[in-house]
Structure formats: C-alpha cells, structure tokens
UniProtKB/TrEMBL annotation:
This protein's name: COP9 signalosome complex subunit 1
Species name: Xylona heveae (strain CBS 132557 / TC161)
Chief subcellular location: cytoplasm
Stretches assigned to the PCI domain: 198-368
Organism superkingdom: Eukaryota
Record InterPro entries: PCI_dom (IPR000717), Rpn7/CSN1 (IPR019585), Rpn7_N (IPR045135), TPR-like_helical_dom_sf (IPR011990), WH_DNA-bd_sf (IPR036390)
C-alpha cells in the first residue's frame, strides 16, 4: 500500500481516522502512519485526537521526536477552544432573546460546525438537531439533515444516518439538484447498510451510485472505496447472472471498476466458473482491505461467504466429487477442505454428504421422477375440481335454479337512484314541491 497516494484521496477528519487505523493495525506502515496522524491532528483543533495519536506513537516508536506531547500547543489550543465556544454560546443566547428564527438557526449551525471541528461529536449532533425547530424552508431542512448524516457517520450511528437520508429523499427538490445529490445519498446509505451487515442492500446502493461522485464525498469515501465495497458485497449477494448483468455490464458501475481493475478480473473469473483464480486475487488484496476503517470488520465474513459460495457453485454440476479434486481446485489440502465442507454441511449451505472411507463428496440422492409425478397429480386434481364446478353451474342453469332479481324492480331501483342524484329528493314523497312516483 502506497500510504501517501492512498491518503491523498481524502480530506477532512477522515484522514486522521484512516492514518490512525493503519498505524494501529499495520506492522509495516505503523510508524509512518502514526507520524502522519500526529501531523494531521496538529493541523486541526482536536486536542483529544492529538493526544491519542501521540500515545500510540509512544507505544510503537518511543524514541521518535513526534512521540513527545507538545504541552504548549495543547494549552494554547484548549484556551482558544474554550474562548470560541463561550463566544458562540453567548451569541446564540442573544439570538434566542431576540426571537429571530433565522438567526437562531444559523447560531446553532455555527456552534455545531465548531463542535464538529474540535471533535465534540455528541455536542455537534445536538446543536444540529436543535436547528429543526427553526427551519423555515426545505433547503434549511436539507442542510440540517446533511450535517447530521456527516456527524452520524463519524460517530458510527448508522440508524441516524439512514433516517436522515430518508428525510432528505422526501424533500421536494429540482431535478438537477436531485441528480447532483444522488451519489452522496446512495454512497452514504450503502455505507450504513454495509456497517449493519446487510450486504445485499449495500450492494444495490453502491451499484446505483452515479460515477459523477468524483471527489465530492472524499471527506468520508473515495471512488475507489465505492468500487471495493460494491464489488465485494455483490460477490457475496448475487449469482453469476446478476454479477454479469448488474456489475460487469453496468454502464455506471463499470466506471468505478476501471479504478480497481483487479476486482473486475475477480468477478469475471467467478462468472466464468474459475473460482480459484477469483479467490487468489481476493487473497492478494486482503491485507489492503484490512486497513480500511469501514471494511476491516467485515473482511473475514465476506471472504468466507465468497469461498463458500464458490464451493457450492463448483459442486452443482456433479453428483460425486473426490476430495482431492476439490482440494486441487481450491488450492488447499484434503484435510482442510474436508473440515470446511463439514462446516458448510452443518450450517445448511451445502446439500451433500462426505464419504470418509472413499474420500468423496456425494450429493444427496433425489428422485426427480417423484417430483414430476407429484406435480402432475396436483395439476390433474385442480383440473378435475374446476371441471366439476363448471358442470354444476351448467346443470343449475338448465334446471332453472338460478335466482335473478325481477326486471321491474331493477328498473325502479335504477330510476330512483337517478332521481335522487338529480333532485336531492326521495321518490314517493308527496306534498308541496314534492313528487310522487
């Protein structure tokens, strides 16, 4: 991983989070990443982040010059933060006393922005939420929800992310504004669904993200991240036809795959039943994916599901396969593949049995003829019942057993209804101005 090129794709507070995660998890890049995290923290106003980065750098490289806390900077920045916070809170109280809704809304927005910049995320979320009572236009509600989404993503509050995205989608906007906003909404929703483990829904959201995203959302995600997240979730949740039509042949997502061509090759290999080549590509890039702050928690599960899915697809055309053949196909030994197959059978993923004596994997015996016979008998019974009902109706009509309303009464009822609608009176009422029928 080229750390400098990787981190150049991002802006804002996510740069620090990514550098800190790489510094804590990479045995090769830890010193470079943590030094970058210390430098990134000192460029901002978040004292807490700076202290955390220095603390980790002291653990890994105690002799590094940056591993010493700059107490003077901490004291100066703490005083500035307190003074600015007091000023903004005093200004907001003045706006509330004047009872001007727009000023109060902007005061809460300024306070929330400042809290966000200094790392007070719960306070920033509360400040943005207080804007709700003072929003007078759809644009105000949109701005509030956008800020809440950004803070909630950083907090890991994925329920708040999804609820505020739904609110944004319900706001009436111009078509050009909606098209411009579409990549952000789908990328944010996909990230929340990925974090919740809903890989099918996450794949749908990432695949629908427009390639015009570019660097608009690089405070959270880059286009490379969209390609990686979308491709891995699609591999887990889609069959080969779906991968071919919705991923490889997608006019929009194809642009993301051009950035990560190895993922396009992996999906192509899977669609062409070359499962070992697909898994080899994924394994080669696994260390890089473990350094991603949103993906590293799901890598083990995603890779396991892709491998299990590959084994199931490989076994579908056969009734019996030797364990040695499967071990060669998936580049492992017989003991490992046998243990893996036993686990898949226990979990109900694979419908088969293992013959330990002959070292064979055998599909469960099925009798397709019995299934055809059952469906044919069911169809015959339904046909017989329908025919009996039709014959019964014909016999009832021929015997004159059908009950019909008299024609005169039917005409009178229709005439009464028309009369009532036109005159507002009930027929049959006599008197002054009345009509008797």
């Amino acid at each position: 991983l080229d750390l400098e090129a990787y981190i150049a794709n991002y802006e804002g507070r996510t740069r620090f989070e990514r550098l800190l995660h790489i510094g804590r998890t990479s045995s090769y890049l830890h010193q470079e990443a943590l030094k970058g995290a210390v430098s990134e923290a000192k460029q901002g106003k978040d004292v807490g982040r700076y202290q955390i980065a220095v603390q980790f750098l002291q653990q890994y490289s105690p002799n590094d010059p940056d591993a010493v806390l700059d107490t003077a900077w901490i004291e100066t920045m703490s005083k500035q933060i307190k003074a600015e916070t007091d000023r903004l809170e005093f200004q907001l109280r003045g706006y509330k006393n004047n009872l001007i809704k727009e000023s109060i809304r902007m005061g809460n927005e300024d306070l929330g922005n400042y809290y966000h910049s200094v790392g007070e995320l719960p306070a920033a979320f509360k400040a943005y939420s207080r804007m709700r009572d003072y929003c007078t236009t759809p644009r105000h509600i949109f701005d509030m929800c956008m800020r809440l989404v950004m803070v909630a993503i950083e907090q890991g509050n994925w329920m708040a992310v999804q609820s505020n995205i739904m609110k944004i989608r319900n706001i009436q906007q111009k078509p050009e504004e909606e098209a411009k906003l579409q990549p952000f909404l789908y990328a944010s929703m996909g990230l929340a669904q990925l974090a919740s483990g809903n890989y099918t829904e996450a794949a749908t959201s990432f695949l629908q993200t427009d390639p015009s995203l570019g660097s608009q959302f690089n405070t959270v995600l880059s286009s490379n991240d969209i390609a990686v997240y979308g491709a891995l979730c699609a591999l887990v949740s889609m069959d080969r036809n779906g991968l071919q039509s919705k991923v490889l042949e997608s006019s929009s997502f194809r642009n993301f795959l051009e950035i990560e061509p190895h993922l396009r090759r992996a999906i192509s290999f899977f669609c062409n039943s070359k499962y070992s080549q697909c898994l080899e590509i994924l394994e080669a890039y696994k260390p890089d994916y473990l350094l991603d702050i949103y993906l590293h928690r799901h890598i083990a599960k995603l890779y396991q599901e892709v491998r299990s899915k590959s084994i199931v697809q490989y076994f579908i055309p056969f009734s019996t396969v030797g364990l040695s053949s499967m071990a060669n196909a998936f580049v492992t030994d017989e003991a490992s593949i046998a243990e893996e197959l036993v686990d898949m059978i226990k979990r109900g993923i694979l419908e088969a049995r293992i013959d330990t004596q002959n070292r064979l994997l055998t599909a469960k015996a099925t009798n397709p003829r019995s299934g055809v016979h059952r469906s044919a008998l069911t169809m015959a019974k339904n046909y017989e019942r329908t025919a009996r009902l039709r014959l019964m109706r014909m016999n009832m009509l021929n015997a004159g057993l059908e009950v019909r309303a008299p024609k005169a009464e039917l005409d009178y009822a229709q005439l009464s209804d028309v009369f009532s609608r036109r005159t507002g009176m009930r027929p049959g009422v006599s008197g002054a101005g009345g009509v008797r029928m």
